[in-house]
Amino acid sequence: MTDDRTPSAVAADGFPTGSGGHDPEALRQRALDALLTARARTTVLTDSVDEGELTAQHSPLMSPLVWDLAHIGNQEEQWLLRAVGGREALRPEIDGLYDAFEHPRAARPSLPLLAPAEARTYASDVRGRALDILEAAPLHEGGRPLERAGFAFGMIAQHEQQHDETMLITHQLRSGPAALTAPAPPDPTDAVSLPAEVLVPGGPFTMGTSAEPWALDNERPAHRREVAAFHLDTAPVTCGAYRRFMADGGYTDPRWWAPEGWDMVREHALDAPLFWHRDGGQWLRRRFGVTEPVPDDEPVLHVSWYEADAYARWAGRRLPTEAEWEKAARHDPASGRSLRYPWGDTDPTPGQANLGQRHLRPARAGSYPAGRAPSGAGQLIGDVWEWTSSDFLPYPGFVAFPYREYSEVFFGPGHKVLRGGSFAVDQVACRGTFRNWDLPVRRQIFSGFRTARDA
């Protein structure tokens, strides 16, 4: 997933059409709820560790937690206070410190960052002013692009939740005892009786959206796609299935690997997903400061695109394309419509998807029957981000909004698309059209996969 840019890069009225028909007051309440939910989560993630942990860099792949905290406030100041509210800048001197494109993550600890107490005060001050602006902002159709349907407020809520997920990754990478706890997900009720795969019939469907008011630029516009019939795993690939790949020499046989992936395996002596290690005859994993046996019936987590692709080849299958994944998740043959979510158009409930850091782990394969799509596939939203075979590319008619650096600069063969969200994703930043992307070597992210085959 990308980092961010400032309002100086705003396109000239680049907001796509399709945000009409929404009650401004309902959108105002939705924006308020989303902003408050995100801030409550940010507080948990940053208050659960001491100042030393906040300022430390737990991995060169990640920022210090205190950088994320102040960056969240700085982006909110730039977009809501300055761009929407027209307010004078509070802290213009720190804009460069918290510009993600100006400073790579590995270099951020050396910057003169705000101390934890100052970062908290700054983010809180910005938030109070932002809520005043939200209370007065016109959110009606025909208003300014950033205000229309509350887009800027939804964008900032999504931005904060995306950084909350990033901070949760940092929590997973940090050493020492657990700082976060959560209950286990509910057990599935009918996992044993589920078929291994479902058939998704061929034909056209509508991909993307022009109607979701807070959809980001890379999700737009809605367009027709033709997809041939294919079979798709009913649930994500489990740890137990992945262990069979490992036991069959999956990490020692170059036949299954893309050349760059095989180079990665040899360079880093990989033999298992990230955070796994063998203790005698047992595979264990470290999860948020706790060491535990690897659960065979849980979706495999922390695998790169290269590992997912290698497993699929070994299994005589392949990764689904992004269009196949979205058709399986959204297309309703009975109505011919594309749904907002696999189960319909209503927002997720705890009985439909594992989202929002509620459980700190994926649910067992076959969970959440109420969240299954018309195709019969389940757990398409939440649990684990799912690698697809597709490069991250724009849709036909793409318009960058409100800045090129959110999506456009990442288009091309260097990044692979992930879909569906994970247990670490909040519902405001997860829907049937939401697109994530990352480098194919990435393993620290909450990534898994499912496989497909031609019909």
The secondary-structure class comes to alpha+beta
CATH secondary-structure class of the largest domain: Alpha Beta
CATH topology of the largest domain: paralog of FGE (formylglycine-generating enzyme)
What is the annotated CATH architecture of the largest domain?
A: Alpha-Beta Complex
Residue runs with pLDDT of under 50 for 5 or more positions = 8-21
Brief overview:
This protein has 455 residues and is α+β, with helices and mostly antiparallel strands. It has 10 helices and 14 strands.
Describe the structure.
The protein has 455 residues and is an alpha+beta fold. It folds into 2 domains: 7-173, Four Helix Bundle (Hemerythrin (Met), subunit A), CATH 1.20.120; 182-455, paralog of FGE (formylglycine-generating enzyme) (Alpha-Beta Complex), CATH 3.90.1580.10. 30% of the residues lie in helices and 13% in strands. The protein is built from 10 helices and 14 strands. The chain has helices at 24-47, 51-55, 65-84, 116-136, 151-173, 239-247, 259-268, 305-314, 322-330, 404-407, and strands spanning 197-200, 203-207, 223-227, 230-233, 276-279, 282-287, 290-293, 331-332, 337-338, 385-392, 412-419, 436-438, 447-448, 452-454. The strands form 5 sheets. The protein has a 4-stranded mixed sheet. It has a 3-stranded antiparallel sheet with strand order 1-4-14, with helices on one face. α1 packs parallel to α5 (151-173), α3 (65-84) runs parallel beside α4 (116-136) and α3 runs antiparallel to α5. It is globular and about 60 Å long. The two termini are 32 Å apart.
